[in-house]
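Quick one:
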Amino acid sequence: MTIIKDIESSQDTARGAVLLGTGGGGDPYVGELFLRKQLAAGKYPRIVSVDDLADDAFVVTVAGIGAPTVLVEHLLSEAALTSLLGEAEGFYKRTIDALICAEIGGANAMLPLAVGAITGIPVVDGDGIGRAFPHLEMTTFSINGCSASPGILADDLGNLATIHAIDNRATNVMVRALTGALGACLYGVLYPMTGAEIKRVAVRGTVTQALEIGREIRLARERSPDPVSDVVRFLDELEEERCSKLLFQGKVIDVTHETRDGFHWGQVTVESLGGSRDTLTIQVQNEFIAARLGERVLATVPDLICVLDSETAEPMTAEMLRYGARIAVIALSASPALCTPRALEVVGPRQFGLDMDWQPLDRMQ
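Output:
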């Protein structure tokens, strides 16, 4: 069991969650402040291994849902979240034994930790993606047959809705419609599962992985004149079956942001500072979904495309990017669970409107 007790560990986890969020998931800053408040009150989140769950344990996801550009403007309400958990237990007629992140990226990595600290409910060391994705059905939970519904949604004003859907795509449509109608920001309790199901479908170890990545970024900039290279090297050695590479470094010369249909859409253009006229473009649909050097594709979903500050290696969300920012664009290959033919039918490039098939990062030129 891992227990987060200090501000530095909280900040490291948030930093790692930004990197794993690949531009999306919402800025975890507000969630980290919320968790820090609980730490100051002596309330600490407990992170438990997937293997420590009883097979009959009742586990749910708790997440913020909406456009990252809107989520970052909302302070988290302790009353709204505790009320939602209480409503959920009444709705399911079960005591919630553990929480799990729907996605480890961004704010949705911090929200379950804060809720776990408030309620005393442990948080599973794992999630359903190993990164962030914009659609509710884009999870290993869904890919492996677990239903997102029935679920319960709430906003800060006390509006409450329950969802019963025939499949997870329908759940996503219904949730997105509600999100768009209620200000592009909701809280949701979804994916009711047993401990046995979590053991079968979760991407394991990702909460402590976020903590380790965030700590490494902090230490790299303290010890190294080139922290970006240190971080890429660390990520490349993180797991045997995954690789990492530096794709591009330069200055943002154009960026567009649009909040539409409950999503953040955009494009970022980066110009090389090395004297060449090379430009890199990054497409955004909540997350960074494709990186191209001219016409050449360097990386696409489900692999993780991440943007770091060139000098500090601090990871950045898509909504943070502005004209003139000096950035490094790196890529980390996705968890193998997202790279099977079955998974690619849900999280591959074509599901994001990209007219291309996925190619493994280590085969990209």
